[in-house]
Amino acid sequence: MRLSRHRVRNAVIGVLALALTGLAATGCGGRVGEGGRVGLVYMDAQGYYAGVRKGMLDSSRKLGEDVQILEINAQGDASKESRFVDTVSSAGVKALVMSPVSTTASIPAVRLARNSGVKVICYNTCLTDEATRKYVSAWILGDPVKFGELAGAKAAEYFVSRHITAPRIGVINCETVEVCRQRRAGFEKALFARLPKARIVANQQGTTIDSAVQVAERVLTAHHGLDAFYGESGGATMGAVKAVRQHGLIGKTVVFGSDMTTDLARELIDNRILKADVDISGRVVGKLAARTTAQVISGDKLGSQIVAAPVELYSTPHQARKWLATHPDGLP
């Protein structure tokens, strides 16, 4: 995650600390709590969530009705998330926009908000199917199965072009959340449809870059001649790329990944290790969140509880250069 990676990470941590900021957010046909408050929860400090925040700010500043946003980085901690939701529900927020830490552990907090009269809008992650139907007004979601299918199809295309009929692949996962499990399901579906002899030889968790490097190094040691990694998140992808480079396997082991960052765009331009990356723009999700929150607060009827966010495949150096040109601040 760069501007340099450390500059973006420091900026994200600063942005996502508990804060009270002025924000204007309206959408088609309604206002986001004119003069009121909205709670905003980020699951952790990955750059994606700074992109979400920027998308909301960029959208709202064009439309200009003041509303206060109470925001927090939950740091992957359901108890911290719960305390914040309890606090803002008591403070009279009109809506809560959140990427829940857990499909199950986050249910009590969301139920409390709903029972307090707060409209809940999920983005990225949400709750169990039953709890989502019961307590959530809308869910902004890029189809995670399609997300994985795009990566799996590109991986299959790569192996077929090199006459590799039975590739051995290691997965670095983020499967504490349901969307990552669905990403893998999509990846495997598309891969096996074209290469039925392909094998997933390892599937281990490594969400942050540092942990993913360690996990990927263990996989490379245990599975000599590994053909590829699939990284289910940005941290998992970058960790796999670093491990391949550190083991001197450029040209032998490749990576197919998720969640575009500046570092990953540069790796895709280099194109020796990273061959494709699938992304859902945090900025776009933030804009959709602002618009959807406006509609929900105004009582507008949504066509569906699921608000679709676009899923994009980046698989060429040209596409990566274009991404960098349109994201000079490094925020996805």
Automatic annotation (TrEMBL):
Periplasmic binding protein domain sequence ranges: 46-301
Coiled coil region boundaries: none
PANTHER family: ABC TRANSPORTER PERIPLASMIC-BINDING PROTEIN YPHF (PTHR30036:SF7), D-XYLOSE-BINDING PERIPLASMIC PROTEIN (PTHR30036)
GO molecular function: carbohydrate binding
SUPFAM superfamilies, A to Z: Periplasmic binding protein-like I
PROSITE patterns according to UniProt: PROKAR_LIPOPROTEIN
Family: Belongs to the bacterial solute-binding protein 2 family.
InterPro entries reported in the protein's UniProt record: Bact_Solute-Bind_Prot2, Peripla_BP_I, SBP_2_dom
Biological classification of the source: Bacteria, Bacillati, Actinomycetota, Actinomycetes, Kitasatosporales
Protein name (database record): Sugar ABC transporter substrate-binding protein
CC terms in the record's Gene Ontology section: outer membrane-bounded periplasmic space
Location relative to the cell: Cell envelope
Main location: other
